[in-house]
Write a structure and sequence with these properties.
Elements (H helix, E strand, L loop, with lengths): L51 E6 L14 H6 L7 E3 L5 E3 L2 E8 L2 E6 L13 H12 L13 E6 L2 E6 L6 H4 L28 E7 L3 E6 L12 E6 L3 H10 L4 E2 L4 H4 L7 E14 L9 H10 L2 H7 L5 E3 L11 H5 L2 H7 L12 E7 L4 H15 L3 E7 L1 H9 L5 E7 L8 H8 L13 H12 L4 H16 L3 E13 L29
Parallel strand pairs: 1-10, 1-11, 14-15, 14-16
Antiparallel strand pairs: 2-3, 4-5, 5-7, 6-7, 8-9, 9-10, 11-17, 12-16, 12-17, 13-17
Helix pairs in contact: 9-14, 12-13, 13-14
Length: 522
Amino acid sequence: MPPRSSVPVHRPARRATGLGLAAVSLLLLTGCFAEGSGAASGEGSDGSSDARVELAMLQPPRSGLSPLSDDAFKLSRWSTAETLVRLDEAGDARPMLATEWEQVDDTTWSFTIRDGVTFHDGTELTAENVAASLERAVTAEPAPRILDGVEMTVAAEGDTVRVTTAETDPLVPQRLSSPQLSILAPAAYEGTAVDPVGHGTGPFELTAVDGTSGATLERYEDHWDGAAAAAGIDVSFVPDGTARAAALRTGEADVVEAVPVGQAAQVEEDLLEEVPMPRTNTLYLNTEDGPFTDPALRAAAREALDPQSVVDGVYEGRADVAAGLLGPAIPYAAEGRDTDAYRELLADRAEAGDPAGQKITIGTFTDRAELPEVAVQLQQQLEQAGFEVELDVREYQYIEADALEGTFDAFILSRATVLDSGDPVAYMVSDFGCEGSFNISQFCSEAVDAALDKAEKAAPGEERRTAIMEAEAAVLAEDAAIPMLHERVIQGEQDDVEGAARDPRERELITAETTVAERGNR
């Protein structure tokens, strides 16, 4: 049986329950946290205990915890809803509710459904209710993001589910790993809404949701892979970063999602875990209009930038200087750059020209607090190299259309490089393909399009990873964009937390292996 998670986890020693922040008389904190269920009373012979995990999360549900929305990632991070397939660290598909699968023909896949699985309401998992659950996602309006632009039909055949796509899609198994395609019991789909309470298959049963305040989950004793170590999870939604950091600092929370960089200094360093994210802060250069149509000036901009000073000054050292479009959250990226094929693609890069006072306008947005600061640093660096730089900084909703239309000579963007399938090809096609829907660089290259087409068609595994890295090199060779840094998220864990997942894809957090010790023993 495959392990529950291939995500690296922290394994020290641990404690117990209840989160109520009534004891914390700090500004903004009163009433932030859900009330826990009482103190732990010990550990059972099977490794389980009465200890509960107190979890502080960044954002409340936006769509009633519907798995067809981005709220699905909360259900996944609580280990209450499961998918047919999971992804390992490299992004390869592994069994979950499906034990195996095969590609029947170019557009058809067959998935064998695991025996002995029950939903939290006691209903048996069958191919029929798996197909019905997926069909609800396929026909949803709007469609879940993972199915955007994908035509798919689903049908049960004996103990298997057959998935057929309109076009050849080598990533069907990876798509079915998306939390937005979680399998819920038939009773979850009564009416127009989707109700996950009591209807998942995971090691924790979602038993109550308190609006946008919190949620309660209990250990599901009959989970197909064995009972969870912790008795349950008490979730509190705490949008205020100061409050989340204070909960970690005072010990009111066991695990805290997304501690702000600005608050990290207020917390003991050994309570913070930095998780590399598949998100790259990039300077996109307009290759269609203006100064950066000249490859020599694009090269001059590349050589002028000092990403390390941005990492040190804006991110307080809590980011990684970019070596390419894909960062350390993509485990094969560094190795993929250490090849002759990759280096050869970069060998004919243009040499830097003289900016000679060339005027350029750089756009970015205020919604991510660090980006205006990044813009100021880049302005200084480019002006030192000889450019004359004007900044245009607005809220994202007021600047996106201009960015996509090529209004700016350059644009600073923090961009997710791995989307719901766990694969970066969709991001690369969107941003650097001639017909890309998010092509801020207004970039079109036959060589890059050919490399992207090869990557899109490649089979998952080594063949696809090699093609992805060659496509990255092809983009960088033409300086359509200058990757500057890869972001990290700071996850808070008390020093006696064991087994909390540190997942760059933000799909896992509290797992069946996560344990806490009694609060009184801390």
